[in-house]
Amino acid sequence: MKLKELLQKGPFFLDGGMGTLLQERGLKPGEAPEKWGMTHPDVITDIQRSYYEAGTDMVLTNTFGVHPLRYSLSECEEMVRTAIGCADKARKAIADGKERFVALDIGPCGRLLKPLGSLDFEEAVQGFAEVVRLGVKYGADCVFIETMNDGAEARAALLAAKENSDLPVLVSCAYGADGKLMTGGTPESVVAMLESLGADAVGVNCSLGPDALAPIVERYLAAASIPVLMKPNAGLPQEKDGKTVYNVGPEEFSADIVPLIEKGLRIIGGCCGTTPDFIRAVKNASAGRVPPAVEKKEKTIIASRGHAIELGKDPVIIGERINPTGKKRLRKALEEGDMAYVLNEAIVQEEHGAEVLDVNVGTPGVDEPALLEQAVQELQAVTDLPLQLDTSDPEAMRRALRVYNGKALINSVNGKQEVMDAIFPLVKKYGGAVVALTLDEDGIPGTAEGRLAIAEKILKEAAKYGIGPKDILFDTLTMTVSTDGNAAKVTLDALKMIREKTGCGTVLGVSNVSFGLPVREVLGSVFLTLALERGLSGAIMNPLNERMMGAMISFRTLTGRDENCAAYIQYANDLPAMQAVTPAAGATGGAKETEAKGLRRAVVKGLCKEAANLTRTALEEGRDSLDLVKEEIIPALDEVGQGFEAKKIFLPQLMMSAEAAEAAVAEIKKKAANQDAQASKGIVVLATVKGDIHDIGKNIVKLLLENYGFTVADLGKDVPPETVLEAVERLHAPICGLSALMTTTVPAMAETVKLVHEKAPWCKVMVGGAVLTEEYAREIGADGYGKDAMASVRLAERYMQEQA
Questions:
Q1: Residue 1 has what pLDDT?
Q2: Are 649 and 640 in contact (CB under 8 A)?
Q3: Is 309 helix (H, G, I), strand (E, B) or coil?
Q4: Do you find a cis peptide bond into 543, omega within 30 degrees of 0?
């Protein structure tokens, strides 16, 4: 039976932890497992053989840390060749005739992708591609991408695997206790993105034990139409006699996992702290249990980095204001490369209730492919709303889809063969739901039946690419009633007919119906209501238009979609302010935009260029730099920090706000008008401990500490304890921060904490990282545990207050 068939059938068993066992067999703190494996291949083979003997169907190669960012290509090749050879030797050692598999293991590259980090998306893809090609060359049976805590990086690795092999690809992400990835991804948004990109299985691993990961697995099962996997830790880590141990044994581990098989879990393994005994226990306890068949979820889902939306359940508002048609100010901004204006349009629409943003930058004189790619990248940094990519240029669509971190709404395809030939391959490769216009080579039919016929033709063509009806939404094309009195009726009849005959969702740009007529919003709001009544899934409209928003919210309230009329009451409360700012259709401006000019708001929203420009202007007008820091920048950071602590906003916004604050402070430093504004709260020595190259968390902490006024001495990654001590003593630093991602490097952290405390007793040591807990931090002697970047800032502030 082929591997994909076995994954579909389940239960299918993976291996357990490798790092823990390597430490027992001689791997020293700080040593890289993949490098150590080069000189100890027999140990690697022996561990993998023990997993096969315990019932594992597929082991992962000892290549978790292999990446061109860390090793030369020749070193990568030797490591992959050796690792696959070890795994192959292990399976051949068991001569029972059963088919077993070897997966090329790919872990995070250790750097955060743009816009939150510095690594370019294409650079990330190419790095993973090198490893994938080596895996194919040396005979891996599939690619296993694991421990991803950033959806963009998971996407880069998956894209690299699909572009460079025909192997099955499994993708597993590492979630925090809040059920989100470090960069904010939810199970639903991650599943939507990875499934649409062609993953063969998705799931979760590391970070938590099976009981804590079970709710996340259940959300995966509810969202996914492909097999779901689970590879939890053996509970939480603890320190015992200088060693890292875990608090869950094989029987408890098994008891937490087996019930999930009956809910659909079909690919099972273990991560940190698990051994062959854990796999054996789960396999024995699950004997005779068969997961139910994988259920195809016929839902139309689009997603951003951390936000999934179902189209067809409740009507959604697609903001139309990032489209230069009829908007002189936006067109001018696009021509001048004024992206700050575009970003502000996005934020204003989000504040007024948009749930999806249409993005169209096509205007004469611009390089549309380059500009749309740039707009998508920058918009994703300041808003988490899903985007509708709106262009008729296939190259622009390709570039935008490639960098879009989620599952996009693609606007659009139509019944012309040339257009379908250009767009459907992009939908197939990059994923997405696509808006289909009911027109073809003969134009726009004048009857509802004619538009239905085009819709059926489009569905038939899409099926050739494996694109199902759930990912097609039809636009029956709104025409103006000023030139054809029957136009609106035909559009509405076609909408209803297509909805009923095909079951597909529908989208309309509702503003066009009133073009050329006075008091346009009256006609538009009634047209919208009629369309909603006929089953409209998404309205492309101006969320700043009070009448249009009133029609949408009233419809939701009157059709039982507004619990306790809460949205309607909120709308009524906001109405006076909206009436004061509502612009005419197609116009720009308003009070919200005026408010947007405040520095504090620019920092909160993460608008870097605007924050810098406003700071520069304020300084030129004589504003005191210290006042800017105390009255604008720090309050803005506190607002975002408090929102983060209350889980109302998430890491990406926290980071972008810090970036905006950094841009503002940079202007103040240029001016150098007030030394007090630059006074440091204290020195913090930061390092990722010896043996660990994953410094994303450390870099985020650095960014926030600097913005809160601390001076940071960043020692980088893979830092020996002696180097950390030297910096602490040389700077007489009152605070030292240490981070680690890998279980195998936690002993190096404990060693560093001990050394600093012995030689520099004045220094407080705070620690953090995916494998740590507060209890474990205490056990290794740390003074404090930062569960996230904001918590680390609070710890640093507390330490300085205590020493004052």
A1: 65
A2: yes
A3: strand
A4: no
